[in-house]
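It is worth pausing here to work through a concrete case rather than discussing structure prediction in the abstract. The textbook approach is simple: state the sequence, then state the predicted structure, then interpret. We follow exactly that order.
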Amino acid sequence: MKQHYDVVIIGGAVIGSSVAYFLSQNPDFNGSILVVERDPTYVRAATSLSSSSIRNQFSNPINVEISRFGTEFIRNFAEVMQVAGDKPDLQFHEGGYLFLANTSDQVQTLRENHEVQIACGADVVLWDREELSRAFPHLNTDDILLASYGRSGEGWFNNTGLMYGFKNKARELGADYITDEVVAIHRDNNRVTGVELKSGQTISAGIIVNASGVSAALTARMAGLDVPIEPRKRTLFVYDCAQTPEGSATVNGGRLPLMIDPSGVFCRPEGRFFLTGCPPVEDPAVDWDDFTPRYEEFEDIIWPALAERSPAFEAIKVVNQWAGHYDFNVLDHNLIVGRHPEVENFIYANGFSGHGLQQGPATGRAVSELITYNAFRTLDLSEVGYERVIANKPFLEKAVI
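Step two, the predicted structure:
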């Protein structure tokens, strides 16, 4: 390992490895890349513990475009990311997203969001109650006023496959990875100059990228900076269904989508089972090592909502559960991507608030452009830069789950 790298990336999960890949594959970038990852098993990474989904149904054009690029990238992933003839199959199930509305406010939001999505080229349709019932006859639609359904470009995929695909290809293209932990960041006035590792090594750096997930605020503080991100816990449950409704749809080959109930409870097929979760009633910051599932959410919130939405979900049984962390942006629940305006060789790629997997490809591309060309070239992410944090101006996104 060298003593100096042009780019040091702190965090080697999906965001850090995406940055490393897009940099290393760019013929206009000829610098050296080091990725520092403290846990190569990734057992507690947000990537590994997520629901592994992607959607185009956002309210802000930037988020729609970010995900549309992510969809195309995932579709072509096996060919682009092959290493030594091995083509990583992400098993992308384009089951779609289905948003349900049963209040006038929810209906207005779906309609406004739909206008944005269609303008960006997303394949999304609005359905009334009758159309919804014909498409998914297992649902109780008596209270539903409007539904928004992604016919293509949305679904779920192999989460760790995306991460390891980026990592393996970046290494093949010349990026270095080490298992270590950054314990200090050196700074000289308005420039960061390097990192100190737990192993005792010091590595000088031309640019440092903060891709450390829920630890983003701790990483920033080492450089004397800040970012409004904290760990928030989300519990996911896998349940078996006595009489599964999968296969009963009259669209998309019978496959069911990822459904977001008006209550906020969501569920989607997961092999022969279903995956589900809900927004917590209370959502405080949690300790970095608190991964205890909130078991009561299933009995108190999820099961009643699912049973009311479909008779098929009355007889269900939990077969697995786990808790993961969101790298939660407390300002506006959206990504922060870009340079610090004063310490310009410190770059943020943080705060995805549950959308990191689907936004990983576009984020890696954007950060690589910023490093290589000092500007965004494909998709302008200036609106989600760090400047809005300083100005305390939230980036508005209405479709946050």
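Step three, interpretation. The two ends are 42 Å apart (CA to CA). The chain has two domains: 4-55+159-229+331-391, 95-152+231-326.
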